[in-house]
Amino acid sequence: MQQKSEVEAVTQQQSLAVVKNMIRTSISEICYLRNLFDEDCFCKKNYAGIMINALHPMDTKEGSEPHIHNSEAWQLTRWLEEGVFDALEKRYLRGLVFAIYDNPENKSQSRLIETYSYAFTYPDTQHIQLEVKQNNERSVVSTDGVKNQAVILLRTLITLCSTLSPLPRERWITLQLYYYDDITPPDYQPAYFEDTADSSIRPGDSSFISDPFVIEAGRLRTPFHAMCMKVRVTESTLHQTDPSSQHTAVETQEPAQTDAQTDAVLRSILAHDSVDPALLASEFELKKPDLDRVLADLGLLLPPS
C-alpha cells in the first residue's frame, strides 16, 4: 500500500513571516542591484537556496559599540521593521510603494525614475485552504508551495533589475503606504510615517520622466495573506548601457548562459508581466526540456521538490 507523504500546512504566523521576509529581501535586492547603497551595507544570506544581498548597515560586534555604515540605509530598515510591518500585522496595509526619484536638490520638481509597488489583501481563510493540482486532486496550501511562490517572485525581480540601466548619480528614495480606510483608524500612522494627503510628491504614473512600463514581478498567496508586486520603469531604463556599473545578479550553482532565444523569452516575460510556461512554450514552439533550459538560464526555474 502506497503511503502519502505528510504536507505541512501554512500557519498564520508562518504566513506573516513569509510576507515580511519577502518585503525585506526584495527591497534589499533592489537596493543592491540598483546601487542605492555601498557594498558594506549588505551581507550575504541564503534565502530558500538563493544567495541574496540583505541590507545590514550596522555592525554589532561583541564587546564594541554598534557601528552604522550608512545612516540612510539604516533608516530604511527602521521604516520597514517598525513602520511597514506594524501596519501589515494589524492588516491595515493595502499598498506599499518603494519609489526612486531624480533631483534630490529640488524635490518639488522631482520626477519618478522607477517604482516597486506591493499590493496586499487578507483573504477569507475558509476559501483558500486548498489548492487544486493538475490531476484535480486537492491539497492543503503547503509551506513548500508558498516557498516556491516566493522564490519565483524573487528570481523574476532579480532578473528584471539586472537588465535595467544604471540610475543617475543624484537620486532619492521614498516609501509610501496606503491603508484600508474602512478598518484603519483615521489617526493611525506607524512609526516614521506621516500623512501625505496634501503632498505634491506622489508615486503615480503622471510623475514619471516618461510613460512607464508596468511589469508584474509575481504574486504570493497563502491562506492568510496575498501579495502582488509590480515594477514601473521607463523605456530608457530597460536598456542597460553600462553593465560594469551594475552589481551582479543572484549567485547560482551554474553560470547563466545568454543567447538570442533566452533574450527573446525574457522580453516576452516582461511584455506579459508574468512567467507563464504554457504560454512561452506555445509562443516559441519549445518542448519542455528546452523551455526548462531557457528558464534555468534566466534563473526562473525552480528545482524539483
Automatic annotation (TrEMBL):
Residues 237-260 are annotated as: Disordered. It comes from the Eukaryota. This is HORMA domain-containing protein. One of its GO terms (biological process) is meiotic cell cycle. Its main location: nucleus. The keyword Oxidoreductase does not apply. The lineage of its organism: Eukaryota, Sar, Stramenopiles, Bigyra, Opalozoa. It holds the Pfam family HORMA. SUPFAM superfamilies: The spindle assembly checkpoint protein mad2. Keywords: Chromosome, Meiosis, Nucleus. GO terms for cellular component: chromosome; nucleus. Gene3D superfamilies: HORMA domain (3.30.900.10). Residues 13-231 form the HORMA domain. It is found in: Chromosome; Nucleus.
